UniProtKB/TrEMBL annotation:
Source organism: Mytilus edulis
Domain B box-type: 6-53
Keywords: Coiled coil, Metal-binding, Zinc, Zinc-finger
Protein name stated in the entry: B box-type domain-containing protein
UniProt keyword annotation of Zinc-finger present: yes
CDD domains: Bbox1
Matches recorded under InterPro entries: 6-blade_b-propeller_TolB-like (IPR011042), Quino_amine_DH_bsu (IPR011044), TRIM45/56/19-like (IPR047153), Znf_B-box (IPR000315)
Coiled-coil stretches: 122-218
GO molecular function terms listed in the Swiss-Prot or TrEMBL record: zinc ion binding
Gene3D superfamilies named among the record's database cross-references: Classic Zinc Finger, TolB, C-terminal domain
Amino acid sequence: MATASKSCGVCELRHITKPSIVWCTECDEGLCTECNEHHSLSKSSRSHCVIPFTEYQKLPADILKFTQYCTKHDKKYQIYCQKHECPCCSKCIVESHNECRDFVELDDVIHNVKTSDAMCELEETLAEVSENLKQIRKHQQDNLTKFKESRKGIETEIKKTRKKINDHLDKLQEDLMKKLYAEEEKENSKICQLLSSLERKETEIAECQRNILNIKQHATDLQVFLSMKKIEDDVYSKNKFIQSLEEDKIFTKTSLSYKINTSIQNIMSDIRSFGDVRIETKSCDIVITRKKAKQAQMMVPTVQSRPIENITFTKQNTINAQGNSIYGCCMFTDGRMAFTDYYDSKVIVFNMKGLKDFEVKMPFYPFDLVFISEDNTLAVTSGHSRKKCITIIDLEKKQIKKTISLDSYSYGIALKDNRLIYSAEDKGIRMVNLSDESISDVVRDKMAFENNIATFRDNIYHTNNETNTVTCYNLQGEIQWTFQMKAY
């Protein structure tokens, strides 16, 4: 039923209007004092569960839509179709599910649903999202305060500098001040908009948590079960919102900076600008916790994993790489392969049959490479070459497309969400955003010479040929585990 009637259901059939004092979850209707007394004594209904009508009305409107009876046939739900993920009455099975095979008793599905693992996961995820939103909001509020303080400091310095020169700089000072306030206003607007969104999301999560509490206390097992998937979808959308903020680097540390023209003190006639104001963006230290991205199903079959000891390799083919110093290799989505020939300074591409397709001469010693399917390119590291860079090769044009300059050597490289992750030796493990070529640190510890990197899901795997170890990091640079190969 869409909305619960406040009048007693039994009395309404007798054309009498009396207020309901309790709600029977089995009969799916309200009962007045007299009818409730008869209901509790009747053999057919004495075992029914009733709750105070005032408590029943506290349930969310969406939950009240779920009833024990089929809205189409007015028969009680008895079976659950796992294929369509919906409860069915006896007529539903005949009319709409005659080809389905995965049926289970509805009572078995909803048994102990309020204390199930799925409900616990849902509550934990809600708490997790709420905490993440609070962290981001606090970070942005602190950032806004520091941003204003840095603006005030810069403003003071600008005024001090201005006093040392003559009236010729009045117009230039005015222009720079306007630019300063404009940058501050633009950034403040962005932060305030984000804070508004975060507060709204927090309110939604808090409401969701209150609903969960009411559902667990007063809703039927069926109502709880059917509402969980909808709440999970809401939680997933909030998680996606946080993920989009993280991927787009929206909640980053920002500050105002400036640079006074050094020529002001001596050659005023050559001055063309008072200085410069820009926004400096740095990676923030917020760690977003994620227990899971989204639980796909409430009932997922268990898949037996294969022990690593039982995994065997079978030799499929041998490729003559036509080089004396093959260091790196990668596979393309179309089956082709690419290798780096370090000392011959070239990248060689082979077709699926192992025959050479083409090669690209490199201006350095290429160490490792990774395939970027989004734009059909290769990213190649420069190893211990004098030229420190990552070079992008266009596979369609078979030539170098562009070069990303670095301030460190680069060895092993991997791709994660349009970001290149590479081993930077003394600089640790770094990440390059391909969208704007900005570089950020993942691990700041000094790394050994000529190491390799791989990624899987949200983890980074890094080799160390000096200690014969493989270390697993998360994307925040925290060590998850280290494996050491035994010496032979």
